[in-house]
Amino acid sequence: MKNNFFKVFIVVSWMYCLGYILFGFPTDTFVMRAIKSVMSIVFSCSLLFFLFKILDKKQKKEMNK
Hints:
Elements: H1 2-23, H2 30-64
Helix pairs in contact: 1-2
């Protein structure tokens, strides 16, 4: 249950941040800036984790040859 919630939160943060990058939501109140910053942190960390995971798989693949 916790794992599924975390995955859904990551997907929502990706959609929110990509929407903000593409369209720039105009309602920048204090609460919306706080939400945007949390979503951006989750987006950035999950993207880095995904990239490190890919690099780790490539490195393991090269070491097994």
